[in-house]
Amino acid sequence: MKKITILFGVFILATQLAFAGGYKVGDKATDFRLKNVDGKTVSLSDYPDAKGFVVIFTCNHCPFSVAYEDRIIAIDQKYKGLGYPVIAINPNDSTVAPADSYSKMIVRAEEKGFTFPYLIDDNQQMTLTYGATRTPHVFLLEKTGDDLIVRYIGAIDYNHEFPEKVTKNYLTNAIDALLEGKTPDPGFTKAIGCTVKFAKKQRD
């Protein structure tokens, strides 16, 4: 039992170290081109009129992600018309988490009526680049000239179970601040959810 505990601790430490190079608030983010559930590829450059993006790493099976799906849809419906569309990315390796396979992503998107792209990061490179560690994990980007600047990282809000009890909507407050020409405060919160499920090659 002690050996298992030690090995688990080593795994967690290794996972944390893997993300040491992830984005911080103020960093310039990279664009990507990933496959959507409709079979087409999506890039942030496909949205020339956007003011920025709400990039959310999420998945099918995590109860935290499932709990936030309706809120994510509502955020996309409200803010994409204001220049901040949601771009959802599934970061999980399907050999580790079969419920997050591409085929099941298609089913889930149809069941819930997702109004936003739901992309698969099949080699997990964007997950590592951005530094996503949880599902859901938010990266709010603002277009500044030709650059995409990270303005907020973290949670959507602080209560996945009872949305009616939420009094601080971290993500929507951050978007509202950008729309008003202000700096989001806070710019960082702790993402709470399931850990990203990495392929063995990423863990080694």
Number of strand segments: 10
Which shape, going by the Cα principal axes?
A: globular
Strand order of the largest sheet: 1-9-8-4-5-6-2-3
Task: Report the span from N to C terminus.
Answer: 22 Å
Order of SSEs, N→C?
HEEEEHEHEHEEEHEH
Note down, in words, how this protein is organized:
The protein is α+β, with helices and mostly antiparallel strands. It has one domain: Glutaredoxin (3-Layer(aba) Sandwich). It contains six helices and ten strands. An eight-stranded mixed beta sheet has the order 1-9-8-4-5-6-2-3. Strands 7-10 form a two-stranded antiparallel sheet. The longest helix has 17 residues. The protein is globular and about 45 Å long. The N terminus is likely disordered.
Set down the secondary structure blueprint:
Layout: H1 2-18, E1 28-29, E2 33-36, E3 41-43, E4 52-57, H2 63-79, E5 86-90, H3 102-112, E6 118-120, H4 125-130, E7 134-135, E8 137-144, E9 147-154, H5 170-179, E10 194-195, H6 200-203
Parallel strand pairs: 4-5, 5-6
Antiparallel strand pairs: 1-9, 2-3, 2-6, 4-8, 7-10, 8-9
